[in-house]
Amino acid sequence: MQIVRFNHKSEVKYGILNNNLISGLAVDPFKNFQRGDAFKKDGSSYPLSEVKLLPPCLPSKLVCLGLNYRIHAQEVNLALPSEPLLFIKPSTAVIGTEETIVLPRGSRRVDYECELAVVIGKTAKQVPEEQARDYILGYTCLNDVSERHFQKKDVQWTRAKSFDTFAPIGPWIETELEPDDLKLETYLNGEVKQSARTSELIFSVNHLISFISNVMTLLPGDIIATGTPSGIGPMKAGDIVEIKIEKIGTLRNRVEQAI
Fold it and tell me: Which band of pLDDT confidence, cut at 50, 70 and 90, is reported for residue 145?
């Protein structure tokens, strides 16, 4: 099931996408996931071509993973972590598919990073690993956009990862898949730059949910970005970057320079 959030004639709604037709939902799925009636339809329908897709959720925070693929750790010449390495992106960085990534003034190198994103469906606190899947609404694509000069200069990563537009997510939430062996790729102007499978993750989705929820409470709509593989590289104004994940879809964004 593909859950979309969209704008139609200035009305913002959630819906279920099937064969390029959106069926409107009667309720916000994040408010009703725990009760089991998150996907009740309201009888409305909309052709996909007549709506604007929005970010598929409104996270209070995006909890991201550094160095969760061995090949990426080797690429940046860093030791493998013994436990998940966490950082946070703010909600203000979120944009949707077909929106614009803006290169901030003063930036020197801004990179793409393709990642599988886990979308939390209900409040998660101190979740046992074996129960982690009960808290997942679904999965989407994420581009962990990063400014490398600031990242190196600051040592900690907040500024480098947190500019407005630095967290594209979408195009929708896929609820019916297993996340443990999915192909994920980055295309820059049609050329493959990253290609890997989620089976190469150091820390699994279940482990991440348990670990993170024992650090901070995860709220409905929050996102866990599971890390990027090797092949990271820079983007410039005019580029088109696409994050493609098997069984989910394609997140597509244009890159522009801040005026």
Answer: very high
Please write the tens of the pLDDT for every residue from 69-92: 988 878 887 788 899 999 999 999
Amino acid symbol at 150: F
Tokens of 19: 């064969």
Integer Cα distance of 169 and 59 in angstroms? 11
Cα distances from 253 to residues 61, 111, 170, 217, in angstroms, run: 21, 13, 10, 31
Instruction: Kindly report the CATH number that applies to the domain delimited by 62-257.
Output: 3.90.850.10
pTM for this entry: 0.96
Tokens representing 238?
A: 């005019």
- Start and end residues for every CATH 3.90.850.10 domain found in the chain: 62-257
Q: What is the mean pLDDT of residues 136-163?
A: 96
Task: In whole angstroms, give the CA distance from residue 141 to residue 258.
Answer: 24
CA nearest to 237, candidates 100, 40, 46, 78: 100
Task: Tell me which CATH homologous superfamily contains domain 2-53.
Answer: FAH (2.30.30.370)
The overall average pLDDT reported for the chain is 96
Q: Going by C-beta distance under 8 Å and a sequence separation of 6 or more, which residues neighbour residue 194?
A: 112, 113, 114, 184, 185, 186, 228, 229, 230, 231, 232
Residue 113 backbone dihedrals phi, psi, to 5 degrees:
-150, 110
Every domain of the chain with CATH number 2.30.30.370 lies at 2-53
